[in-house]
Prior knowledge:
The protein is an all-alpha fold. The protein contains 18 helices and no strands. It is a multi-pass membrane protein.
Amino acid sequence: MQRELGMDLVQSGFLLASVQMAGMxxxxxxxxxSEKIGxxxxxxxxxxxxxxxxxxxSFFQQGTLVxxxxxxxxxGFLMVVLPIPALIKRITDAARxxxxxxxxxxxxxxxxxxxxxxxxxxxxxxSWRTLxxxxxxxxxxxxVLTFLLVxxxxxxxxxxxxxxxxSHRWPNLLRTTLSSSRVWLLALAFGVYAAQxxxxxxxxxxxxxxxxxxxxxGGLLTALIAAGNVVGNLGAGRFLHAGILPHRLLQAGYLGMxxxxxxxxxxxxxxxxxxxxxxxxxxxGGLIPATLFFLAVTAAPSPETTxxxxxxxxxxxxxxxxxxxxxxxxxxxxxxxWQWAWIATVSFAVVGxxxxxxxxxxxxxxx
Length: 367
């Protein structure tokens, strides 16, 4: 896509991140809307937007139109992923919530694994445009399955809870959410994590391409890195269930990402060592999103602000995913090579460590 649309490295970083623009601007707003129109209905609308945007985007010929289409696609993405944690909380036994949130935390790396593996195989015989057509059709199928299999909102929310939620005005929900220091810290923690992971995993195919590794091989290696994040997320769910304190898992995740990023980019020229280091970067980093998803639904200021709290966390996560790739690309471009990428990622991780320490002083729920 970079070659076909005539983009440089920084512009391709924005293409990679543009899908997050809607989340960066509208996360809190969609959190409010999802409670108003119903969580299931919001998910269905989002899947519809994703499907149509993907289908139309495959026909665009200009980079600007592709970027705009990706922004619209981001709106659909947000309407899908934002209501799901609140819906999980409604239908899941409290004793199992930490483990289920560990499973939910895998959605992004699991999707990346599928795209990087199957997508690379597809690109060996087809184009990115036909790939987007296939993804649009698959999303449409998921929308139909969601309509058939997910119970209506009236069956997942008690009458009393529905009346109580409807009695709260949006300004009150916003005020309660944004006045919580815990919600702010959780949101910022997710942002600095997402900035690192999105940049490193998103640019791995570019790094392998510059090293003259075949597209299929590069896609498979990057898919394995994304799969490592799934392992970390599942592990976080089990650790929380076993009683390990959430801030300890956050600290371990950020520290691990620092060590692995320095090793991968700053201390080695070997592609083999770099691959192992980035794989470990993804695994230990996976401790962070599952822990933060669990805290977002359990540490919300009130039950009525669960969706808005998750919305604000998702908004800052999207901000991180939007900022991360261009920042890393700018550092690499300015300093003259990928060996300097660790400067950007380590800076994000250090901020995460400070946030984890601050959260430990506020007191957090246990798994």
